[in-house]
Amino acid sequence: MNTLQSAVRRRRAVAAAGVVSAGLLVLSACDKPSAVATVTVGSSSVNSEATCGGQGETLKSADLTRCLKDKGIKSISVDPDETVRFGVDPEIADKGWTILMNGQPLTDASTKTYRTIPGSVFFNAQYGAQGNSTLVSIKEGEKDTSGLWNFKLEKDA
Predict the structure, then answer these.
(1) Which of 7, 53, 59, 110 could connect to 147 by a Cys-Cys bridge, CB 3.0–4.6 Å?
(2) Closest Cα to residue 42, out of 116, 95, 97?
(3) How does pLDDT run across 84-94, given as a tens digit for each residue?
(4) Do residues 151 and 137 lie in contact, with contact meaning Cβ atoms separated by under 8 Å?
(5) What is the rounded CA–CA span in Å between residue 139 and residue 54?
């Protein structure tokens, strides 16, 4: 009986080691998730992984142009009297990031993880706004762009 119990224990230990090894193998095969950018207005927020890039490699100009025309963009309603808050993961902030409005720089590059802008800016023709929606992008990289996160801000009148 003692021999039988020790054989069962050995089988269980070997099975447990196999399960742990298989789990580690699966985890090591996973891709690293890309960093996330978030836009918050009042109590509503929307976040997204990179529309293009976000893996640390420099994007080409043609890729950036294509990304700015992407149709699958998350949107959020913005009351022009509210403050729009932008947040980025630290790995984006470390490389520097700029807020673009319709493809043009709206802010200087920052290494902070959080920025705020009055909602009225995104619907003001003086800043290049047209109509009741605006494409806002977060560009990773101070000189070379390595990631782009796009959001559509829709005027909530």
Answers:
(1) 53
(2) 116
(3) 999 999 999 99
(4) yes
(5) 10
Say if CB 39 and CB 85 are below 8 A apart: yes
SS3 state of residue 51: coil
Please report, for residues 95, 124, 135, 153, 154, the alpha-carbon distance to residue 131 in angstroms, rounded to integers and kept in the order given.
33, 9, 11, 11, 9
CB 96 within 8 A of CB 111: yes
Quote the CA–CA distance of 148 and 51 in Å, as a whole number: 6
Residue owning tokens 């902030």: 93
Distance, in Å, from the CA atom of 5 to the CA atom of 1, rounded to the nearest integer, reads: 6
Cα gap 25→30, rounded to integer Å = 9
